[in-house]
């Protein structure tokens, strides 16, 4: 019997084939190099830093908002306390004529922020048109002056409700942020009240043009010193009451402009120059309109 010879496969070829099959069946993986790993860490750190900065900004805005609210609340509380004190002082004074006190306190409520422009009345309905003029304007301040004061009421310089209102208009339109604060109101005679006030105004370019025009033309240094400055002036208002008609006959105001001006300019000569040709006197009287 004859045995057939069979050739055995090459061992090296078998090993190569097995290696190839192993590589093909093994999933492809990317090995992180030191450079790419460092770059990834840097990007992560950058994102974390941006998040930290954004969170810090948000917390800062929140704190600022909370501080603003707290300050507003504090200001309101102080104002409420001041009004309560004024009310208690008035109640303790036990006025003999309550109407006189009502008119006096209403004056400061209406003129707390100076002159207010009239408001156009709402368009009347068809039923109202026969008795109401469509172009009528409501002016609360003028109505108050006309109903609470005599036709010839005076402030010592001018007479009549319209003239008093014009003085308020001159002061308010030629200054910014007018604020009149009633500090105290007391009865100084049977038919007289005396109010102690603080009036604050801001000097603007319009103030310099309309009230102190000579500074623009002649003295630019003083002009620059006054522009955008806030004047806080102490003053008083005296009310004289006519019990026979239940109205005020005299409302005389004065404010101390000299003291804050001197504090601002630092020289009496400069203050004298400011008021020399001004349309306001050092005690707040209007010299021309």
From TrEMBL:
GO molecular function: DNA-binding transcription factor activity
Pfam families according to UniProt: bZIP_2
Region (Disordered): 1-47
Protein name in the entry: BZIP domain-containing protein
CDD domains: bZIP
Organism (species): Phytophthora cactorum
Segments of skewed composition (Polar residues): 16-39
Coiled-coil portions: 59-93
InterPro entries: bZIP (IPR004827)
Domain named BZIP: residues: 47-90
Keyword field: Coiled coil
